[in-house]
Specification:
With 252 residues, this protein is an alpha+beta fold. It is built from twelve helices and six strands. It folds into two domains: 130 residues, no CATH class; 122 residues, no CATH class. Strand 4 and strand 5 form a beta hairpin.
C-alpha cells in the first residue's frame, strides 16, 4: 500500500472548459478582429491549452520519452478532435492507446514496451483525482431487496476507485520521483500484478490486490447482476466492499 501526492495539482477538466469559454467570449467581443483571425487565435489557444492538459495528466510519460517526442505525439492526438466537439473525458481516455501506437512508429521509442501501462496508470490517477464525491451506500434499500430481485440489480463501484492489471513494475513509479534511478531502469517485466487506485482526501492510494478481487471489481464495473456476483464471490469480498464504501450504490 502506498500513497501518492501530485507534485502540483493537475489541470482539471473544468479549468480547461472555463478558459476555452472565456477565450470564446473575449474573441466574440473584440470587433477589431475578423472572423478568420478569431478562429486562428482560438485554434492556437486551444492547441496550447490541450497540450498543457496532457502534460499535466501524463508527466511520467513526458519524462520517459522526452519533451520533443511527447509534443509531437500530443499534437497529432489533439488534431483528431474537432474544435466544435471536445468531451474531455473521452479526450483523456484515448491517450494511453494512442501514445503507445505512435511510439511503435518511431524507431527511437520502440524500446518502451511499458509505455502503454505507464500512460494507463497516469490516466487512472487523473480520473480518480477528479472523480465525483463518493455517495454512501443505502443499506436500507439493499436489505429491502428480495432474492429474485438480485437478478435485475447490479452494484455500483465508487467513482473515486479504479483498478488495473500491470505486466511491468509500473507501481514503482508511484514514488519514482523520490528515487535516483532512471524510470526506464525501474520498468522491468514481471508476473502480472493487480492494483486498485483510491482517492483519500487530497492523496491517491495505490493498493495491491488479489487477482480474485480484481476480477470481482471488474465484473462490478461491467454491470453484472448481484446474483451473478454473489455466485462468483467465493472469498466473501462483497460485504466488506459495501461497508468500506468501495461499492457505493445499486443500479436497477
Amino acid at each position: 500500500m502506498s500513497l501518492m501526492i501530485y507534485p502540483k495539482a493537475p489541470m482539471s477538466p473544468q479549468r480547461v472548459n472555463t478558459i476555452l469559454d472565456a477565450c470564446l467570449q473575449s474573441f466574440g467581443d473584440d470587433m477589431s478582429l475578423s472572423a478568420t483571425q478569431k478562429l486562428d487565435f482560438y485554434h492556437t489557444k486551444r492547441q496550447r491549452l490541450l497540450h498543457q492538459y496532457l502534460v499535466s495528466a501524463y508527466p511520467m510519460c513526458l519524462q520517459l520519452i522526452g519533451e520533443s517526442y511527447f509534443t509531437q505525439i500530443a499534437e497529432h492526438y489533439i488534431a483528431q478532435f474537432p474544435a466544435r466537439y471536445l468531451d474531455l473525458v473521452v479526450f483523456g481516455e484515448g491517450f494511453p492507446d494512442f501514445i503507445f501506437m505512435q511510439s511503435l512508429q518511431v524507431s527511437a521509442l520502440r524500446g518502451f514496451p511499458y509505455l502503454k501501462e505507464v500512460a494507463r496508470l497516469e490516466c487512472l490517477q487523473y480520473q480518480v483525482y477528479f472523480a465525483e464525491p463518493r455517495p454512501e451506500f443505502d443499506f436500507e434499500v439493499f436489505f429491502d431487496l428480495s432474492v429474485p430481485q438480485f437478478e435485475d440489480v447490479s452494484f455500483l463501484l465508487a467513482p473515486d476507485i479504479r483498478v488495473m492489471q500491470a505486466h511491468y513494475a509500473v507501481a514503482l513509479l508511484w514514488d519514482g520521483g523520490q528515487k535516483c534511478e532512471p524510470l526506464d531502469k525501474m520498468l522491468i517485466p514481471k508476473v502480472p500484478e493487480f492494483y486498485c487506485i483510491v482517492r483519500q482526501v487530497y492523496t491517491l492510494e495505490l493498493i495491491k490486490i488479489e487477482e480474485s478481487l480484481y476480477d470481482l471489481l471488474q465484473r462490478i464495473v461491467q454491470g453484472e447482476s448481484m446474483a451473478s456476483l454473489y455466485k462468483f464471490d467465493r472469498y466473501g469480498y462483497l460485504p466488506e466492499l459495501m461497508k468500506s464504501g468501495w461499492v457505493c450504490g445499486l443500479q436497477f
